[in-house]
Write a structure and sequence with these properties.
By secondary structure, this protein is α/β, with parallel strands linked by helices. It contains ten helices and 16 strands. Helix content is about 30%, strand content about 25%.
């Protein structure tokens, strides 16, 4: 792992003993019972070692996930229920307010991505949890996708050789649930985070173009390109105006390409072939030849469940892939740089 990302990764949660004694049930609270919160409620109930003891949402429980629990009105009432840790699934503009309240009360938390609405807010949240010696994590569920987990493992094992480029495509119809941010902070944050994580390097530069086609205040399409600190070049195509839903990450290196379809959880490897062509013109122009293609048989577990298990393990002091708040701030810094680049027409150095 690069020194830059190594210093950033886990900086606010490592070097401590378990936050909660291993094996002791974790009393979980959940704030936000909307599109994501309803799934978190189900998964928390299913994860061994977690107990959902309190839920809160100022707008009630329109999905009917509270069951026997009283729907509390705010974060203070959630804290008052005597929780050990909380899952925060409120709209992005409330992340700082809710996160700071939890940190002040000594409650560990995982906050849905992005960590906050702005870098400054995210830094305040991360600092509050670090200063209080609390476990603070960010919910980047794509890191738990089986195809990406396998891709990262194989790249780390050297199966791709030197990595040259990582590209992502995240396109689909507009999600009516999103009202407070544009496509950059809602979706591109996933691609920025998973790219840094796969490459084990932070971003060094980024440039982007955005457009507004849906009549909303925020951007709905972005194309971005950049370079990581370790020299890997990256490209992201993200929008929520495409009738075709695409979720694809491609890592290309000296030995071939890994193609992850995160909708299906499939990972395919296409090798650089070593078959020589007798047709001179083809040999000259192709550069590399297409070799064998393998689609791996991999175990496919629900990413959201893996995410909550990672949070549990971090709380218990186990080795964990939970995303630190420092990493969450870096992802937010990169996407804000994308918006700055689109506005200024320049490449932004991070």
């Amino acid at each position: 792992m690069s020194e830059e990302l190594g210093a950033m990764s886990g900086a606010d949660v490592t070097g401590q003993g378990p936050a909660i004694p291993e094996g002791q049930p974790i009393r979980m609270g959940l704030i936000g019972l909307g599109a994501m919160g309803r799934h978190h409620a189900r998964v928390i109930r299913e994860v061994e070692g977690m107990e959902l003891v309190a839920v809160a949402d100022a707008n009630g429980d329109k999905h009917g996930v509270a069951r026997e629990l009283k729907v509390l009105p705010d974060v203070q009432s959630l804290i008052g229920a005597g929780i050990d840790a909380a899952m925060v699934a409120v709209p992005t503009y409330l992340h700082e307010q809710v996160g700071l309240a939890l940190a002040a009360a000594g409650v560990h938390a995982m906050i849905e991505k992005p960590i906050a609405a702005t870098v400054e807010e995210g830094e305040r949240v991360a600092a509050a949890f670090a200063d209080a010696s609390l476990v603070g994590c960010v919910g980047f569920v794509e890191r738990c996708n089986p195809a990406l987990l396998e891709m990262r493992r194989r790249i780390e094992a050297g199966e791709l050789g030197e990595v040259y480029q990582i590209t992502t495509s995240r396109q689909g119809p507009f999600p009516a649930r999103i009202a407070d941010v544009g496509v950059v902070k809602d979706l591109a944050t996933h691609d920025v985070d998973l790219t840094s994580w796969i490459a084990q390097s932070p971003y060094a530069t980024v440039s982007a173009q955005v457009t507004h086609r849906s009549g909303r205040e925020h951007e709905d399409m972005v194309v971005a390109a950049g370079r990581l600190a370790n020299g890997i070049i990256v490209n992201h195509v993200v929008n929520w105006l495409s009738p075709l839903k695409v979720r694809e990450t491609v890592a290309t290196g000296e030995k071939g390409s890994f193609i992850a379809n995160t909708l299906s959880g499939d990972l395919t490897f296409v090798a650089n072939g070593d078959v020589r062509s007798d047709w001179d013109r083809v040999t000259v122009f192709r550069g590399v030849s297409e070799g064998d293609s393998i689609r791996y048989a991999i175990a496919k577990r629900e990413p959201l469940r893996v995410e909550q298990e990672n949070f549990r393990d971090r709380l218990w002091g186990r080795e964990s892939e939970a995303v630190s708040m420092s990493e969450g701030v870096h992802a937010l810094r990169v996407v804000e740089a994308m918006l700055e680049s689109a506005n200024s027409g320049t490449t932004v150095a991070l």
